[in-house]
Amino acid sequence: MKQETRALHVGYDKNDFGTMSVPIYQTTAYDFGSADHAANLFALKELGPIYTRLNNPTTDIFEARIASVEGGEAALATASGHSAVLFALINLASAGDNIIVSNKVYGGTTTLTTHTLKRFGINCKIFDSSSAENLEDLIDEDTKAIFFESLSNPQVAIPNIDKIVEIANKYDVVTICDNTVATPILFQPLSLGVDVVVHSTSKYINGQGSALGGALIQRLGLNDKLIGNIRYSQFNEPDPSYHGLIYAQLPFPMFILRARLSLMRDFGATPSPFNSWLFIQGLETLHVRMKEHSKNAYKIAKYLKSHPKVISVSYPGLEDDRQHHLAQKYFKDSMSSGLLNFEVEDFEFAKKILDSTKIFSVVVNIGDSKSIITHPASTTHNQVPIEELEKAGINPGSIRVSVGLENADDLIKDLEQALE
């Protein structure tokens, strides 16, 4: 089946209940029916619902569907995009290890990786994802993950994905790509050899800003990279917290299995079944919405590019954008999602623009059907030091726009009056 069809049908057989809409299993626990069945579930001799902290039928369908749409083998849904990033990283790294993170990532990811994880003994090194020139020099025997975004938030920068994957594979290091902004409709990192994809499903996958959630997806064949890999003993040695279970000896996608049985079990960052149901609805229309988001963003980027008060515009879908060749190389029909970034003279003028818009809302979310405008330096990246902001390409006059599904001409008129 093609991607659009899989987004509507994978993981659910309507003949089970006769309902066209996936049922919401709004339950905490399940009746096992017998002591033997309960024991077999906990021993992984049988598969099925155990407790909604670990799995849930509605969430199972969402996980199967997003894994299929992303072109992956298996997925784990989480309570937020941030918890998906956390799980992906700590599934690989522990105290004494290090991770290598792109210099162009969401501000919350920066604080998580450079500050919070440091308190747990995991060090973070920063590499330039646009060129990846310094990546190889940063890898050592304790490196456990390389993390980057396919379209960075808020810079809308495209990394040198081929080079990142090539270097990572040379040293048997797992790559993790945050594909939230591009979505699997525009780009599928796993098809280029990326090992794990993470999403904030709160964004485009949900599409209406109505639910928090996240997901991590592993590629088919990742087991082969992990089995016997001396970097990842946790997959190859007995897990004392699970009766000596060795993940590498099980016929399951082991990255996702360990994230579920070890991390979700202990941290409990579980999505509600209702939120999983909302994400299922979002996946069904994602391929239609991403085309409209991208089309609107392209028109607005062209307008801003011609405005005398706009210093620069970052939107790879523009033919004269310095990253357009990468958009052509990686993204479907060179579409670059609904996120764009533009720069004006200073913070005061940026603030005036935000306060003057009538259709755009001053909100720190992205991927909503309604258009959003944000000043990253004072909000989403407020905790990042000024010198680091400059290195990441975020200036006091930078404005992030998440273009929604309104009429593009109306949005342009709104920006026009705000820029006066």
- Beta-strand content bin: 5-15%
The side-by-side strand order for the widest beta sheet comes to 1-7-6-5-4-2-3
Helical content band: 25-40%
| Basic shape | globular
Compressed to H and E, one letter per element, the order equals HHHEHEHEHEHEHEEHHHHEHEHEEHEH
Question: What count of structural domains?
Answer: 2
The largest sheet is: 7 strands, mixed
Which topology of the largest domain does CATH recognise? Aspartate Aminotransferase, domain 2
> How would you classify the helix and strand content by structural class?
alpha/beta
What is the residue-averaged pLDDT?
A: 95
CATH superfamily heading of the largest domain: Type I PLP-dependent aspartate aminotransferase-like (Major domain)
Provide a count of the helices: 16
Distance between the termini: 50 Å
> Spans with pLDDT under 50 lasting ≥5 residues?
none
How many beta-strand segments? 12
What is the CATH architecture descriptor of the largest domain?
3-Layer(aba) Sandwich
CATH class category label of the largest domain = Alpha Beta
C-alpha Rg (nearest Å): 22 Å
Question: Would you kindly provide a brief summary of this structure?
Answer:
The chain is of the alpha/beta class and about 425 residues long. It contains 16 helices and twelve strands. It has a seven-stranded mixed beta sheet with strand order 1-7-6-5-4-2-3, sandwiched between helices.
Report on this structure.
The strands form two sheets. A seven-stranded mixed β-sheet has the order 1-7-6-5-4-2-3, sandwiched between helices. It has 420 residues and is an alpha/beta fold. Helix 7 links the parallel strand 4 and strand 5. It starts with a helix and ends with a helix. The protein has 16 helices and twelve strands. The model has no long low-confidence stretch (mean pLDDT 95). The protein folds into two domains: 262 residues, Type I PLP-dependent aspartate aminotransferase-like (Major domain) (Aspartate Aminotransferase, domain 2, 3-Layer(aba) Sandwich); 132 residues, Alpha-Beta Complex (Aspartate Aminotransferase, domain 1).
